[in-house]
Amino acid sequence: MRNPEFSERTRVLDLTDLRNKTFDVLVIGGGINGSGVANTLAQMGISTVLVEANDFASGTSSTSSKLIHGGLRYLQQGRIREVRNLIRERDYLRRNTQIVKDIEFHILITPDSWHRWEIRLGLVIYNLLGHRITFPIFHRNRGEYPSVVRGYFSYLDAMTDDSRLVISNICSAHNHGAVCLNYARFTAIERNESGFSARISDSLTGKEYVVHAKIVVNCTGPWAAEAMKLIGTSNRPDIRLSRGIHIVMPAGIFSLKNAIAFRSHVDGRQLFIIPHGEVVHIGTTDNFVGSPEDREISKEEVNYLLESTSAIFGKMDAASVITSFCGIRPLVSESSDPGKATREFSVLRDDGIIHVLGGKLTDYRIASRKVAGMVAKSLGIKSDMDGLPKIDYERDAGDDPVQYDLDYECAITVDDIVRRREGSSIYSLDAGASMKKEIERHVGKGDVENQG
Ligand SMILES: Cc1cc2nc3c(=O)[nH]c(=O)nc-3n(C[C@H](O)[C@H](O)[C@H](O)COP(=O)(O)OP(=O)(O)OC[C@H]3O[C@@H](n4cnc5c(N)ncnc54)[C@H](O)[C@@H]3O)c2cc1C
């Protein structure tokens, strides 16, 4: 059976129909946490509406390193429980979804790297937590890498396409009856006898709508503090924001068969080079910023990644950087070092509203189930959440991808297609330029607003 239509047309119908409905739950924010929560609730038969101010996955959930991983480096800080939970989720997603794939990492041993015994010990624990009983072997560099690399240890983790993971959860939620609205910004809320009435502004037309819901879940990631202000939350935790950038370079410069992790000679931080077909992504940085809008990538950040990479692969030219992208981590931690701040999510309830703060792509299912359990309890519903949320969505084979994005994945702008549904702006050598032209030819210039 084909997926149901999910397009700009159905979006307008859904917006118009809002006034006639009272939902069980309003989810604010369409990143990985919001989409996972909406998907879980919809699969439990709980009536759900999700509103996203821009496009789905337009926040941090399309600008991550795209790893589904346990966080090997967190072991250095003794965060064993966090790593164990992340590894469990990684393994579930590897086994049960099409969108998460294994990837082999090499940890390079260079004059600036960690000691071999540190890496070996870390990998023994990491593998054991993942129920892999393998002794990490040191492989000498036999010409696979430049001569500054003495050798490497290898381990397995997983990777995904973060924005497609979000879109898949959104489409799955839609398939299960959730109303999912992109370009719909939450602006204000009132409490009433039956729950809440929230004001929503259509970012495309400026029209105002009201959503009625019994329970509200705030999944606005780095914008959580702003949403809490709009909501009037009294107990606002300290949410710190840390910016991470990636640069995209041609894969041909590196000729890697696998991903690599190495230690920057500049500041001793761990960096990754991850191959994605024609290109590699190199990242990332970790610097506190004051606002989720502080997303302008500085020359210093790009130079730091280039300089760190150059120490191993020889002089890297800034002109070879195809593009770059930047994301803001929401961290719930008092640590003065963003690298040491926990990446674990917290869920809190204040005056009837549930807030999801922090977290990773990797553990979105745990956060989603935790929220769904709280919602079910409030609604007095008994529900088996075992295995939820599942991704009950697959693209129908053989269809033209651009038309499919418009008709079944509610793409509205060119960027929605090029960046978040097809990914060519960060996975191709021309940063999506030819795809943008193709879309214009395909749908006509006026039909899809060009924000790219
Ligand atoms: C550089 C970097 C690398 C990372 N790498 C990894 C990794 O490899 N693996 C991993 O597991 N995790 C990684 N993470 C962490 C992970 O990406 C984030 O924790 C996760 O994406 C946060 O998801 P979210 O849904 O909470 O927030 P977001 O994805 O930011 O979603 C919040 C959404 O809320 C919307 N919103 C805000 N205000 C409103 C409003 N008023 N009304 C409606 N909508 C609103 C925003 O537009 C946004 O789309 C990385 C993070 C960064 C920054």
Question: Can you tell me about this structure?
Answer:
The protein has 452 residues and is of the alpha+beta class. It folds into 2 domains: 8-61 and 163-238 and 342-394, 3-Layer(bba) Sandwich (FAD/NAD(P)-binding domain), CATH 3.50.50; 103-158 and 239-339, D-Amino Acid Oxidase, subunit A, domain 2 (D-Amino Acid Oxidase, Chain A, domain 2, 2-Layer Sandwich), CATH 3.30.9.10. The chain starts with 7 loop residues before the first helix and ends in a 9-residue tail after the last helix. The longest helix is centred in the N-terminal third of the chain and has 17 residues, at 80-96. The strands form 2 sheets. Strands 3, 4, 5, 6, 11, 12, 13, 14, 15 and 16 form a 10-stranded mixed sheet that branches. It contains 12 helices and 18 strands. The radius of gyration is 22 Å and the shape is globular. 30% of the residues lie in helices and 26% in strands. The chain has helices spanning 8-17, 32-43, 80-96, 116-129, 162-175, 224-231, 299-313, 364-379, 401-408, 414-421, 424-427, 433-443, and strands at 22-28, 48-51, 67-68, 101-109, 139-140, 151-159, 179-181, 184-192, 195-202, 208-218, 239-250, 259-263, 270-276, 279-283, 287-289, 323-332, 345-350, 353-358. It binds flavin-adenine dinucleotide. Flavin-adenine dinucleotide (FAD) binds at residues 28-34, 51-54, 58-61, 63-67, 185-186, 219-223, 227, 244, 284, 327-329, 359-362. Flavin-adenine dinucleotide binds at residues 28-34, 51-54, 58-61, 63-67, 185-186, 219-223, 227, 244, 284, 327-329, 359-362.
